[in-house]
Every structure is written in structure tokens, then in C-alpha cells.
Amino acid sequence: MSRQTIAALLWDDAPEEKALTNLRQLLARINRFWPLEEPLVEVEGSNLMAGPGATRSDLAQIMARRKSQVLAERVAVVRLVKGDLLDTIDSGGPELSQWFRSERERFRRQVLGLAGEVLMEMTQFARAKKSDIDEIGERMLALEPEREESFRALMEAYGRIGDIEEANRVFDDLKKILRDEFGTEPRPETVATMRRILANAPRPRLQVVAEAEVSAAIEQTVQPPALRNLAGLPRVSLFPPQPRPGETLHPLYRMLIEDVANSLSRHATFAVTAPHSSFDVADTGDRERLAALRSGYLVTGFLVPGSQKMALRLTRNPGDEIIWAAEYRVELEDLVVAFRMISHRIAVTLASEIERDQLDRLRADPKPLAYRHYLEGHLLFKNCDLPRLRRARVEFQKAAAIDMDFAGARGAVSNALQLEWLMLGANDPSLLMQARHEAEAAIGIDAGNSVGHWMSAVIALHQRDYDKAAEQFLEAETLNPNSADLLESHGDTLAHLGDPDAGWQRFQRAIELNPFPPDRYWWGGATIAYFREDFDGAIDMCGKMENDQSVLRILAICHGNLGNKEVARNYGARLKDMYPGITAADVVNLTPDKKGNMKEVIVRGLKVAGIS
């Protein structure tokens, strides 16, 4: 400001000459008592400005760091705000009072806007410490105790981390303040926010008391070796049954055999080929692809003409020696019983030591209709297509609603919710919060079932709880050492945890078990390759997918880093259409990268793709 303007503000009732004299004396005292070499105030002609010494002030720190891209720095900015701008200073005469009112209002708008952004970002992944939200809330309400927008931001923050009780408390506090101070009620948008929070609130978690011996076994669980040697394990491949002559096989029968295979993969004494690959071999009839499965045992079957039975047999390969055969009734209402009998018999035949307790608990209270919805969900849950993914989730939820003790259904709901959250750009924390709840419920129902631990690990990764993600995946892999699906997911997570080479080894083992996999495998493999900066390999795996919608970010980044400008820009344009307003910072924030190695790769690739 000019000397005249400052003098008039500070001494508005004094003559101009006297005010300017007072200002000169004030500046002399400041220079005499200022302890730092860098001056607090600098003079430039008839103007005064803040000198380099002013950067030591809390206000300068707040203004400089409030635009930071680092969340922790912006949180620190909000914590610096202990009150209003210069709130202990007497405002003086009318001119200075007006100046203070204007500047304080501007300061509050900036801080409150920043605090709201911080609350949104720190709870973006449905995970934040309540104490951190409390502290930000205290700063906001200290500046403007009656500001409804601040209460609404706090309600939403608590809602995103699933603390419904605290969200209700904040809403009640707001209603009391508005009634006591203004005789009004909260605005419609605030009421709608509370309704949405309550609608997204997870259902109460099931409390399941495990048997003493199960708890003891879990406590004694050892970590699995980094990679088991598949060559030393007998391998079994299961194929869909042949339909009756002149009929088409109902897809639920294929899903029955697939679920048998997936459940058998929990055993450590033999390996099970992923059904996606064995079914592909059965559909094509290709002998070379059959040989590629390298199976020592084959499970084949057919629907018996003129009856509601399915005949199954277990043969040694090569040689076609039948070592076991049986028939089961396979009417839809009998599928659960048939499943349990088939699983039990095959396990007894192939394994010398079997986790009998886990298998018996798998269907403690079979409900045929629940199981049918579960299979219907898996029919839809093949590739990365958002509409089918949502329909699959609905089927899984129906199964879980019918059979509250169905751990597999709760785990499948969690998986569907997590993938839906990711494909929607990770902008809806309620989906991730609900996915976490479903994973915890699956563990509570059956701690011996790997699916709950598996999904808990995936969600912990996205919530940046890296230690929990690593621990839960080791738990899941111990319980289910030969699941191709789990190995692929674990490999993807290891890449995000900073060990993409170990992740690649697990991915290769998953492909060994499932050589003709669904799209989500190639998505995970492309992610691992991208973390290894093998951009050509990542692009190649994306090319194996039927639908590339889920990997547009990877394709844009990889082509950008390879300098394929035109192709990268095409993928960048598709990303902008799918996620309007997307920035490189959004993609960096979305990527759980424990070591932070990928930021430059992401920004460099997206810049070429036209996303800054």
C-alpha cells in the first residue's frame, strides 16, 4: 500500500502530516526491535510492502501452503489457524474497522473452503482418524460457530468413514444451534445429506463366535512361503458336465462345477486349475490346450438322460483310469447338497490331509435359493463391465440376505462393491466403506474362508493401510494357497506395496493355474507390468481384454511414456469423456503407491495424453 493509505487507515482521525509522522516513527521502532536480518517491511518509493521477514509468520505459511498438492501440508495449514485474522488486535477507527471486517471475511472464506476440501480428501477412501476430523471441525466452528456448511462438511466426513453416531451428533448440534439462535431448522440440502448418510450406513455386522479350536488354529497360522512349487503338487482340472442329447446345458450347472473348483483350491495338498481355463479347453475341444493344463486328474461328467441326475467321474491323466465315479441329483433346489457331496468326495480322494473343518462349515445351513442367487451372480461376474458388475452385486446381495451365514456371498458382495467403486473413479467412499463391512462380515462368519481376508486386504490397500493389506493377504494365502484368483490379486497388491517383481511371480503362477483367464486378470497383470515400467508388456495385456474401459488410465500412461502421442491422446480423450474434469493429480491420488515411485511416471504419461 502507499504510505498515505496506511497512515489514513491507522490514524484516520489525525491530519495527514501527523499521520505520516506517526507512520515514520512506527517503522523506525519496528526496524529497531525486529530481531531478524531479513526486514519485516520494505520501502519502495512511496509504497510499503511485506519484506522477506514476513514469510516467518503463520499467515504467510497459511497462504503459501494452502494450494499444496500434498494433503498433509494442507492439513497442517488448517491446524495453524487458531482463530480469526489478528483477532486480538483492537480494530481502531472506522476505516481500519472496515478494513479488518473485509480481510477477516476473506481469510475465513479461504480457510473454511480449504478445511472442507481437506475433510473431503482425507476421507476419500472411507478411512481417516476420528481425532483428525474432530480437530479440523474445531478449527472450522471456532471461525464461524453457526455456519451450516461447516456442519454439513463434518457430517459428510463422519459418514464417509462409517461413524454414523458422530454424524448424528453433529446434525443434532446444528439443529440445536439453529433453533436456539435463529428459531430455524436446517436447510433442505443438509437434511438430504443426513438421509444419504443413513441410507449408505452399513448394516450391523454379524457377531459370530468361533469354536475354540478354530481360534487356536488361526492364532497359530504361519505365513506361506513366498511362492510354492506347483510341480510337486498333484493337479486336478474340473470340466463342465455334458448336456442331455438335444438340450442346452443350463449355465447354473457350469457355475456349480466352477464353485466346486474354487472351493477346492483352499487345500494345500493339491492344486486346482482355475475353471475359466479348464472350461475354455472343454468348450474348444483343443487337445493341445488340454495338454497345457498339465493335469494329473480330470473331473468330467454328464447329465443323465431321462433323470434329474448328474454323473461325475474322477480319472487319472494320462491313461483315463477311472478312480472314482458317482451320481447326484441336480435339481436346482438340490444344488447345495450336491455341491457339498462332490466337494467332500473329491477332497477325500485327492488329499491325504484335508481341512475338514473348513469344508464342513462351508455350507452350515444350506439354503438352495441363496446358493442359486450366488451362482447367478458369478455368471455375471466375469469381465470388467459396469452394468453386469452391478447386476452381479444385486444377485450376491440377494444370496446374503437369504442366508445370513453365507460367508462366500458376503465376500462376493465386497468384491463387487470394491470393483464398482474403482470403475466409478473412486469418488464414492460409501461403496468402499460398505465393501469393507462386507469383508469383515465374511471373516466374522467364517474366519477359515480366505475370501474375507482377501477382500479386507484389497480394501486396506486402497485405504492406504499398507501393513494391514500385506498381513491380510498372507492370511488369505495361507488359507487358500492355490487359488489363481487370489494369487492374481495378491500380485497386483504387491506391486502397489513396492515389490512388483514378487507381484509378477505370483501373477505368472496365477496364469499357470488359469492360462485362459477373464479380463480382470489382464487388468491386474497390466498394472504389475506398469509398476515395473514395462509399458509394452502392460499394453499387450490390455489388448487381451474384451473391454478396455477399466484400463484406460493404464493405456494412456503407458503410451504417453513410450512417446506414442496420437494413441495416448486418443485414450486421454476417452478418459476425459468418462471422468469429466480429470487431472493427473486425481490419478496420482487414486493410485495406492506405498513407495511413491509412480508419481512421475503417471504425470509424464498423462501430460502426453493431454491430461495435466
TrEMBL record:
Protein name: BTAD domain-containing putative transcriptional regulator
Lineage, highest ranks first: Bacteria, Pseudomonadati, Pseudomonadota, Alphaproteobacteria, Hyphomicrobiales
InterPro entries per the UniProt record, alphabetical: AfsR-DnrI-RedD_regulator (IPR051677), BTAD (IPR005158), TPR-like_helical_dom_sf (IPR011990)
Domain Bacterial transcriptional activator: 57-198
